[in-house]
Description:
This protein starts with a strand and ends with a strand. Helix 2 (76-93) crosses helix 3 (106-117). Mean pLDDT is 80; it is low at 167-187. Strand 3 (25-30), helix 1 (40-51) and strand 4 (55-59) form a beta-alpha-beta unit. The protein has helices at residues 40-51, 76-93, 106-117, 137-141, 145-152; strands at 2-7, 13-19, 25-30, 55-59, 97-104, 124-127, 158-159, 165-172, 181-186. By secondary structure, it is an alpha/beta fold.
Amino acid sequence: MSIITHKKGDGKKIVGLLHETGSAQVVVLCHGFGSSKASPTIVKLANGLGKEKISAFRFDFSGNGESEGDFRYANYWIEVDDLRAVVQYFTHVRNRKIAAILGHSKGANVVLLYASKYHDVPKVVNVAARFDLKRGIADRFGEDFLERIKRDGYIVDVKNKSGKMVFFFFFWFFPRFQYYNHMVLTL
Length: 187
C-alpha cells in the first residue's frame, strides 16, 4: 500500500491509500457519513479487490480522516468534487483508467451524483446507499439541535417511534469541524 496525498483545486489535500496490484485499472472506494478510508467495510472491499488482482484506492473525503477541510453534514456536492479530484488525479497524473467508483452508505450517494454529473467512469457500484433523504438533521434531532449542542455539547435522546432509545449520540466541537463530529453507540 502507498499513501497518496493530492491537492484539490481549492488547495486542500485529499489523503488516500492505494492498494497496488499492478492492474491497468483502479477502483475508487468512497466511505460513508462520518467515516474514513479506515472504515472496516472499505478496507475489506479494498483487500477483496486486491485478492482478485484489481488495484483499489480508498481515500478520506474532505473533513474526514486525514484529509483537510471541514466536516459537514450533508455535503454531497463537496464530496463529489473530492471524488472528481481523485478520478482526475488517476487519469491525468498517474495515467491509469478508472474501472469503477464504488461507494458505501453516504459514499454510494456520492458516486451516483458523480455519475449523473460526469460521464467518465464505466461502472458505478452502489453499496447500501441512503435512500430516504427526506429526513434531515432537524428531523432526526429536533429543530433546536444546534442550540442543544452549543448548550450541552451533545445530544443523547435519539429514540424510535415507541420511545425506546436506539442510539446514543455524542456530538462535540472541534475548531476543524463546522458543526460537530459524532460517535454512535448502538444500545
